[in-house]
């Protein structure tokens, strides 16, 4: 293969949607305003738990501009339950019907109970405030551990308790390993509820022409949304078109499965006009991203080798949702023991419901928590044995020569060089230098700390029987002018996979990047696909685009041979070349498509639709019942250097290094963008982001002054170092690059703060490490 | 409804707005320029930033009535036809955005900064864009873009 | 909702005479309140054309109620210019937000009220009933409550020259948070006065002994702690909100106070 062109695989051409975004021409969901548009507002429960006695819509119906007020009872006559993205019942768990508006019971403050449609957004919102819901208030439970008590209030009357499911993961005999270990270290990690908070809130715009629905959505998964709407509304899929507009950030939050999707479609149908609903910031902040407690024990030998792991997870998902978010804690379990060689593990998981809003899917998808646990365990073992935390990791990593490596929980890690990542990180952060500076500063009563966090990021998931799909489909179509349209089932919520896929197609076809157009997020135009999640877009979108582009290239070559009368023909820089002669690609395309009969025995189509299934996925359970749902495993090693103000508890990030290995990088600048974004999100949840509720379950942190996401001045330069260990199981050796960083950042910060405060002997047990939380840690051990 | 006069990107406009209408909604819905975005309506995220009478302003925290008679510049004013403003070019070259939703605020704030501070250091840049949230990039590339824009402008 | 934007102060006081109008200055606080239905006034009076944006040096300083933080940043008003530079929310907020507005809004998590108390500012209030001046120390009654009557408008902040060394420290959780505790110091040879913002529902003014052996001296720190804690308790205890519990604010307030004194005295901190 020739050296990469400036815009080919491995180069970093600018984002292809730059011009429209930079000039304000890009059209996001709320920028669509069709003729006759009406606006919806959602009436939400003000109590955390109760039975709905009645919903009084009289005043709202009479309010200015109101077209329609809909209650749950009325909605249920027109729409069935919202189908699950991942049905807990299919995994042996408890389920409940999810409705677009609640009918008889509410289980969290913020749950939709009615909706108003009016001529303006302000009118709809004003009228929504006039809807009166009469409740029988029921006792509520806001904490997962409380929810496990036998006498706890139950969210769903027909369940035996509040547990969606209990699962056990791992193989071997960890109890025996712990019993024979030189040391046993136990620890706890409590991860507070945070959220992804994309800057563009979620929104939908539905319009009907006769019995055909067009749905514009700020959503990652148009095809799944089409299926869900078809199922809930009882409409044939062929009568629904879903168009996902330009998406203003997503991070999992905009995977589909929300009540408002069905609701907006129904409101439009009933109102007989286009209806738009865009949530406000308070509504966006209802959606959680993670909240769970881990209690773990590890056994280790005196040299730092860890021999056994036991971990009990209690995950608080809030109320159950049809969105994929509820399933995230499963990955917290299966991603342990991460990239460490610990054959004896047992992980017990309880997924518990409480009277809080549901968790939505979030970048990291639960895998982040696994790293926090494993990395805390590494540091605790190092502390117990008086070893350097870096050395403990070195002793436990799966060696580079042992891949593919099957973990105790069944994941089959494709490739990696974790020792290499550790070396690169320590070198870049100047680990010995930081340790020297730490010692000097301590003399002056200042507390510098350095923390490491390794992250193994399983990506491009496939969950059998669900729409979490490990393959995708792309069409590559060359027109008579030689221009290429790529229609793909994967979507881009902002990360730039459109640019990456265009690079691949241009590279494979041997044409300039500017000749390639991308079409994504339109169920009428794109082949059936699954959208964006799990770092899949470049693996399976890129893979399928490659296959399709190769088909088209083969056709160009065949025609080129005929036209040039040459034996060996290649396509490069937009020219078909052979025997020292060349023809522009557009001329070859035109020849095939306008002189098909003269050309002869070549089928006159310059188009191919291909699906790509990467290797390494295995859904046949092994003797332990384990399946292997991920083709690729990115890895990264993070180091955070912090200063802790022991008088106020404030943590300041001084330096940050991420050594990252996602195999082949299609566009390194876009990879770095993804990684930095994920790290920033991890740092936010580690230091400042927390969704807080009052004693009645109402959200308190309902704006960006109380839900504190990082701002520019909060973050240091996030330094990136790359290592490339290609995956043997994907088309270009690339691995997912959309999520790595959340868990590594959390772990590195947690360890850095504990390291900084080592003179006090504090033990970090929870995130976020806000100043009050850090000061409390110091107080806890202060004599 | 009251009539409000605005000069938006050099064009005089008369629009009828209801009491309580926010400037951001007037710009997006009455004037029809949707490059200015709504992210929070509490003055925290900065996606609604426009320039009012020469000063960057979060247009979600201004009543349209209060802007009567004002000169407003939006993100749409930056490029000259297809010719991008140096700040726009720098953001593109440095990957200073991903989803682009925060861009109107980032671009206009960056432009205001480099007009008053030709050689900004990181602290100047942070102070300028601390009122603009980005959830995609981790800000590093945005800071680099502002630095590059300042260099190219000087 | 009626909207008026009077061309002068008389017009403003007339518009406010009914006592039911909401005053909008820079709008950064109250416009979001309007948007989210937390206030629903029958009338809004916009101050932006009333000629209240004068910033003049006259012995001390006269700061019009509509002087923006940006204007303060560019001037050299003792303490207030420095406070203005650190206002959260970016230049867009500093371009519109005003110290007068912050004083009138009286958010406990704001540093302007405490700074005005530290400067012994006087606040001039006007209504159709006349004009009065109130000392900053008497202006703030509680969280979001001041002595301003509903028909009054704050027109000017009057500052005398300060005859001591000024120090200032603002502690936030992160860039995006409201201030948690702020401390403004005026240090004179015999007495050090510190006014704390954010610590309690209203600014807390304390008189400290000058530190005989530097601001890190444990004995002096103990003195600061006892004086500051007593001051906060007398003001009703630490201010409690979603960002930080009152106990935390009370706990760190002496630290912030001591650091502010260090700043006033020009001590180089580690």
TrEMBL record, chain A:
<dbReference type="Pfam" id="PF20256">
    <property type="entry name" value="MoCoBD_2"/>
</dbReference>
<keyword id="KW-0560">Oxidoreductase</keyword>
<dbReference type="Pfam" id="PF02738">
    <property type="entry name" value="MoCoBD_1"/>
</dbReference>
<dbReference type="InterPro" id="IPR016208">
    <property type="entry name" value="Ald_Oxase/xanthine_DH-like"/>
</dbReference>
<protein>
    <recommendedName>
        <fullName>Aldehyde oxidase/xanthine dehydrogenase a/b hammerhead domain-containing protein</fullName>
    </recommendedName>
</protein>
<dbReference type="GO" id="GO:0016491">
    <property type="term" value="F:oxidoreductase activity"/>
</dbReference>
<dbReference type="InterPro" id="IPR036856">
    <property type="entry name" value="Ald_Oxase/Xan_DH_a/b_sf"/>
</dbReference>
<feature type="domain" description="Aldehyde oxidase/xanthine dehydrogenase a/b hammerhead">
    <location>
        <begin position="23"/>
        <end position="139"/>
    </location>
</feature>
<dbReference type="GO" id="GO:0005506">
    <property type="term" value="F:iron ion binding"/>
</dbReference>
<dbReference type="InterPro" id="IPR037165">
    <property type="entry name" value="AldOxase/xan_DH_Mopterin-bd_sf"/>
</dbReference>
<dbReference type="Pfam" id="PF01315">
    <property type="entry name" value="Ald_Xan_dh_C"/>
</dbReference>
<dbReference type="InterPro" id="IPR008274">
    <property type="entry name" value="AldOxase/xan_DH_MoCoBD1"/>
</dbReference>
<dbReference type="InterPro" id="IPR046867">
    <property type="entry name" value="AldOxase/xan_DH_MoCoBD2"/>
</dbReference>
<keyword id="KW-0500">Molybdenum</keyword>
<dbReference type="InterPro" id="IPR000674">
    <property type="entry name" value="Ald_Oxase/Xan_DH_a/b"/>
</dbReference>
Automatic annotation (TrEMBL), chain B:
<protein>
    <submittedName>
        <fullName>4-hydroxybenzoyl-CoA reductase subunit gamma</fullName>
    </submittedName>
</protein>
<dbReference type="InterPro" id="IPR012675">
    <property type="entry name" value="Beta-grasp_dom_sf"/>
</dbReference>
<dbReference type="InterPro" id="IPR002888">
    <property type="entry name" value="2Fe-2S-bd"/>
</dbReference>
<keyword id="KW-0408">Iron</keyword>
<dbReference type="InterPro" id="IPR051452">
    <property type="entry name" value="Diverse_Oxidoreductases"/>
</dbReference>
<dbReference type="GO" id="GO:0016491">
    <property type="term" value="F:oxidoreductase activity"/>
</dbReference>
<dbReference type="GO" id="GO:0051537">
    <property type="term" value="F:2 iron, 2 sulfur cluster binding"/>
</dbReference>
<keyword id="KW-0411">Iron-sulfur</keyword>
<dbReference type="InterPro" id="IPR036010">
    <property type="entry name" value="2Fe-2S_ferredoxin-like_sf"/>
</dbReference>
<keyword id="KW-0560">Oxidoreductase</keyword>
<dbReference type="InterPro" id="IPR036884">
    <property type="entry name" value="2Fe-2S-bd_dom_sf"/>
</dbReference>
<dbReference type="InterPro" id="IPR006058">
    <property type="entry name" value="2Fe2S_fd_BS"/>
</dbReference>
<feature type="domain" description="2Fe-2S ferredoxin-type">
    <location>
        <begin position="2"/>
        <end position="78"/>
    </location>
</feature>
<keyword id="KW-0479">Metal-binding</keyword>
<dbReference type="GO" id="GO:0046872">
    <property type="term" value="F:metal ion binding"/>
</dbReference>
TrEMBL record, chain C:
<feature type="domain" description="FAD-binding PCMH-type">
    <location>
        <begin position="1"/>
        <end position="164"/>
    </location>
</feature>
<dbReference type="InterPro" id="IPR036318">
    <property type="entry name" value="FAD-bd_PCMH-like_sf"/>
</dbReference>
<protein>
    <recommendedName>
        <fullName>FAD-binding PCMH-type domain-containing protein</fullName>
    </recommendedName>
</protein>
<dbReference type="GO" id="GO:0071949">
    <property type="term" value="F:FAD binding"/>
</dbReference>
<dbReference type="GO" id="GO:0016491">
    <property type="term" value="F:oxidoreductase activity"/>
</dbReference>
<keyword id="KW-0274">FAD</keyword>
<dbReference type="InterPro" id="IPR036683">
    <property type="entry name" value="CO_DH_flav_C_dom_sf"/>
</dbReference>
<dbReference type="InterPro" id="IPR016167">
    <property type="entry name" value="FAD-bd_PCMH_sub1"/>
</dbReference>
<dbReference type="InterPro" id="IPR016166">
    <property type="entry name" value="FAD-bd_PCMH"/>
</dbReference>
<keyword id="KW-0560">Oxidoreductase</keyword>
<dbReference type="InterPro" id="IPR016169">
    <property type="entry name" value="FAD-bd_PCMH_sub2"/>
</dbReference>
<dbReference type="InterPro" id="IPR005107">
    <property type="entry name" value="CO_DH_flav_C"/>
</dbReference>
<dbReference type="InterPro" id="IPR051312">
    <property type="entry name" value="Diverse_Substr_Oxidored"/>
</dbReference>
<keyword id="KW-0285">Flavoprotein</keyword>
<dbReference type="Pfam" id="PF00941">
    <property type="entry name" value="FAD_binding_5"/>
</dbReference>
């Amino acid at each position: 293969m020739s050296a990469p062109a400036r815009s080919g695989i491995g180069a970093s051409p600018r984002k292809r949607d730059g011009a429209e975004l930079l000039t304000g021409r890009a059209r996001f969901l709320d920028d669509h305003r069709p003729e006759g548009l009406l606006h919806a507002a959602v009436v939400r429960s003000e109590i955390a738990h109760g039975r709905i006695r009645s919903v009084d819509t009289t005043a709202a119906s009479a309010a200015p501009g109101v077209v329609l007020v809909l209650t749950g009872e009325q909605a249920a006559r027109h729409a069935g339950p919202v189908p699950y993205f991942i049905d807990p019942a299919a995994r042996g768990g408890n389920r409940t019907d999810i409705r677009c508006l609640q009918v008889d019971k509410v289980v969290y403050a913020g749950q939709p109970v009615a909706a108003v449609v009016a001529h303006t957004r302000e009118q709809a919102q004003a009228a929504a405030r006039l809807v009166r819901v009469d409740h029988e208030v029921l006792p509520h439970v806001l904490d997962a551990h409380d929810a496990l008590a036998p006498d706890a209030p139950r969210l769903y009357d027909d369940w035996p308790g509040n547990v969606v499911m209990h699962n056990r993961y791992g193989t071997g005999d960890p109890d025996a390993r712990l019993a024979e270990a030189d040391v046993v270290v136990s620890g706890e990690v409590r991860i507070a509820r945070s959220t992804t908070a994309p800057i563009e809130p979620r929104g939908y715009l539905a319009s009907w022409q006769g019995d055909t629905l067009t749905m514009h959505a700020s959503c990652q998964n148009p095809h799944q949304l089409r299926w869900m709407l078809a199922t809930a509304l009882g409409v044939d899929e062929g009568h629904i078109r879903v168009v996902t507009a330009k998406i203003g950030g997503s991070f999992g939050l905009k995977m589909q499965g929300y009540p408002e999707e069905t609701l907006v479609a129904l409101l439009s149908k009933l109102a007989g006009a286009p209806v738009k609903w865009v949530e406000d910031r308070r509504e966006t902040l209802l959606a959680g991203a993670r909240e769970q407690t881990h209690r773990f024990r590890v056994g280790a030998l005196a040299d730092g080798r860890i021999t056994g792991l036991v971990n009990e997870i209690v995950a608080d998902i809030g109320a159950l949702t049809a969105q994929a978010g509820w399933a995230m804690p499963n990955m917290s379990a299966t991603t342990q023991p991460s990239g460490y060689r610990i054959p004896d593990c047992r992980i017990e998981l309880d997924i518990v419901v409480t009277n809080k809003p549901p968790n939505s899917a979030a970048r990291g998808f639960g895998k982040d928590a696994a790293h926090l646990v494993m990395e805390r365990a590494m540091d605790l073992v190092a502390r117990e044995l008086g070893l350097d935390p870096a050395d403990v990791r070195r002793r436990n990593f799966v060696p580079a020569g042992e891949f593919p490596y099957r973990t105790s929980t069944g994941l089959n890690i494709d490739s990696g060089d974790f020792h290499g990542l550790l070396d690169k990180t320590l070198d870049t952060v100047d680990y010995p230098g930081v340790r020297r500076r730490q010692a000097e500063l301590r003399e002056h009563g200042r507390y510098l700390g350095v923390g490491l966090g390794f992250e193994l990021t399983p990506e491009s998931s496939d969950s059998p029987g669900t729409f979490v799909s490990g393959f995708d489909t792309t069409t590559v179509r060359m027109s008579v002018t030689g221009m290429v349209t790529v229609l793909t089932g994967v979507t881009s919520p902002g990360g730039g996979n459109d640019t990456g896929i265009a690079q691949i197609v241009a590279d494979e076809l041997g044409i300039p990047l500017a000749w390639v157009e991308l079409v994504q997020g339109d169920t009428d135009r794109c082949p059936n696909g699954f959208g964006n999640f799990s770092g899949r877009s470049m693996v399976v979108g890129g893979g399928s685009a490659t296959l399709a582009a190769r088909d088209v290239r083969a056709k160009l070559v065949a025609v080129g041979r005929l036209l040039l009368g040459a034996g060996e023909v290649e396509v490069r820089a937009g020219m078909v070349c052979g025997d020292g002669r060349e023809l522009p690609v557009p001329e070859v395309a035109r020849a095939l498509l306008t002189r098909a009969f003269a050309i002869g025995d070549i089928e006159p189509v310059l188009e191919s639709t291909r699906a790509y299934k990467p290797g390494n996925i295995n859904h046949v359970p092994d003797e332990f019942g384990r399946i292997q749902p991920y083709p690729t495993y990115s890895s990264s090693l993070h180091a955070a250097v912090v200063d802790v103000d022991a008088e106020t508890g404030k943590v300041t990030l001084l330096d940050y290094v991420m050594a990252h290995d996602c195999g082949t990088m299609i566009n390194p600048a876009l990879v770095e963008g993804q990684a930095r974004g994920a790290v920033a999100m991890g740092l936010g949840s580690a230091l400042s982001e927390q969704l807080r509720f009052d004693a009645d379950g109402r959200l308190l942190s309902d704006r960006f002054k109380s839900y504190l996401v990082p701002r520019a001045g909060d973050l240091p330069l996030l330094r990136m170092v790359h290592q490339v260990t290609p995956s043997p199981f994907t088309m270009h050796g690339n691995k997912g690059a959309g999520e790595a960083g959340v868990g590594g950042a959390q772990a590195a910060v947690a360890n850095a703060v504990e390291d900084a405060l080592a003179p006090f002997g504090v033990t970090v047990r929870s995130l976020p490490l806000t100043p009050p939380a850090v000061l409390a840690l110091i107080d806890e051990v202060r004599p | 409804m009251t009539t409000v006069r605005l000069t938006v990107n050099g064009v005089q406009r008369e629009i009828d707005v209801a009491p309580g209408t926010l400037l951001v909604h007037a710009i997006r819905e009455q004037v029809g320029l949707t490059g200015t975005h709504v992210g929070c309506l509490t003055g925290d995220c900065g996606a609604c930033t426009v320039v009012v009478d020469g000063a960057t302003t979060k247009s979600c925290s201004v009543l349209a009535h209060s802007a009567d008679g004002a000169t407003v510049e939006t993100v749409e004013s930056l490029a000259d036809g297809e010719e991008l403003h140096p700040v726009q070019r720098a953001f593109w070259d440095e990957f200073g955005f991903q989803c682009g939703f925060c861009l109107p605020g980032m671009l206009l704030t960056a432009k205001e900064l480099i007009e008053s501070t030709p050689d900004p250091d990181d602290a100047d840049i942070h102070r300028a864009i601390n009122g603009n949230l980005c959830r995609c990039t981790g800000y590093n590339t945005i800071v680099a873009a502002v630095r590059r824009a300042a260099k190219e402008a000087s | 909702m009626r909207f008026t934007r009077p061309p002068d102060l008389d017009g403003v006081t007339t518009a406010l005479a009914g006592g039911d109008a909401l005053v909008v200055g820079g709008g950064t606080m109250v416009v979001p309140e309007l948007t989210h239905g937390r206030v629903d006034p029958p009338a809004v009076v916009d101050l932006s054309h009333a000629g209240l944006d004068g910033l003049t040096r006259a012995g001390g300083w006269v700061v019009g109620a509509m002087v923006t933080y940006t204007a303060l940043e560019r001037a050299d008003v003792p303490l207030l210019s420095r406070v203005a530079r650190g206002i959260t929310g970016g230049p867009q907020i500093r371009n519109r937000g005003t110290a007068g507005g912050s004083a009138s809004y009286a958010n406990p998590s704001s540093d302007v009220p405490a700074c005005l108390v530290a400067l012994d500012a006087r606040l001039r209030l006007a209504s159709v009933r006349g004009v009065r001046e109130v000392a900053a120390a008497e202006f703030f009654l509680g969280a979001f409550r001041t002595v301003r009557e509903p028909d009054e408008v704050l027109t000017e902040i009057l500052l005398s020259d300060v005859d001591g060394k000024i120090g200032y420290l603002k502690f936030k959780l992160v860039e995006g948070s409201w201030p948690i505790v702020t401390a403004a110091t005026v240090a004179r040879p015999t007495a050090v006065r510190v006014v704390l913002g954010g610590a309690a529902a209203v600014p807390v003014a304390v008189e400290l002994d000058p530190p005989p052996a530097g601001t890190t001296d444990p004995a002096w720190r103990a003195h600061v702690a006892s004086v500051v804690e007593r001051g906060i308790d007398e003001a009703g205890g630490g201010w409690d909100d979603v960002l930080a519990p009152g106990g935390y604010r009370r706990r760190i307030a002496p630290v912030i106070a001591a650091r502010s004194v260090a700043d006033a005295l020009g001590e180089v901190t580690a």
